[in-house]
Write a structure and sequence with these properties.
The chain has helices spanning 8-30, 45-60, 76-87, 107-113, 125-133, 143-154, 174-182, 202-207, 263-266, 281-300, and strands at residues 4-5, 35-41, 64-70, 94-97, 163-167, 191-195, 211-214, 232-235, 239-245, 253-258, 272-273. A hairpin with a 7-residue loop joins strand 9 (239-245) and strand 10. It has ten helices and eleven strands. The protein starts with a strand and ends with a helix. The strands form three sheets. Strands 1-11-8-7-5-6 form a six-stranded parallel sheet. A three-stranded parallel sheet has the order 3-2-4, sandwiched between helices. Strands 9-10 form a two-stranded antiparallel sheet. The protein is of the alpha/beta class. The structure holds guanine (GUN). The site of guanine has 8 residues, from strand 4.
Length: 302
Amino acid sequence: MTAKLIKGTEIREEILEEITAEVAEIKEKHGVIPGLVTILVGESPASISYVTLKIKTAHRVGFKEVQDSQSVDIPEDDLLALIDKYNNDDSINGILVQLPLPKHINEKKILNAIDPDKDVDGFHPVNVGRLMIGGDEVKFPPCTPAGIQEMIVRAGVETKGAEVVVVGRSNIVGKPIANMMLQKGVGANSTVTVVHTGTRDLAAHCKRADILIVAAGVPDLVKPEWIKPGACVIDVGVNRVGEKPSVKNPGKMVAVLKGDVDFDAAKEIAGSITPVPGGVGPMTITMLMKNTLKSLKFKLGI
Ligand code: GUN
């Protein structure tokens, strides 16, 4: 069997078009547009590239977008004051502080300073709590898990009563997606198992999964024989395993990326599977846009 490919690049286009249309409608009816600020501290090339893409996407869907770049040695108090400024700025609905932050800054303190109602990353403890309660309480599900759930739903995979196995227990992916899949409602209502480095028999758990979500950060961790025939496999891993010459920019090198699942073998067993790259990756920024739009809608009460 060859699995159906769940392509994040295609789902991204669908969702961004939906967001663009909704932004235009809100602008016409209410005279406002969503505003997103991204705060970048320092000049890490990876962070610059993520933030540039976030701003470019925000611009594409019709948001007001602010790129606030700060020097790598900005004092913590100044960064807190900057967040306070945006917390009180009515034209800003979403505040994102790009991580990681330099060592002299307490990341937790910074994330906790963001107004939970503008925390479009969903990292503030208030939003983590809202996610745990579920239902109407949820405001901003964290972007990568939200993207995973959206992909599962749009691929038409049945989640109600499904055995979902999550490999990995990070605060950004494993714990929140496990929580989201066990809630009542559409795209959830599953029986969830979380496995991790302390799990005795990883393979045995994975073999039971109707939906296998892998976010371990270990290239090719999941072997084809761990996959139940017909299962939906979501590979969140983005592991740099080498470099190769760029096709687009001759003379330049680009990273060779590998997921946490042995894709070539797994696609012969799974019913559906996400590729790496082009799977979960493009969904994260897409869901950031969705959360920013939601933030404005909550404010307008629509
Ligand atoms: N750095 C890498 N991924 C992310 C993300 O999703 N949000 C933020 N704020 N920083 C990141």
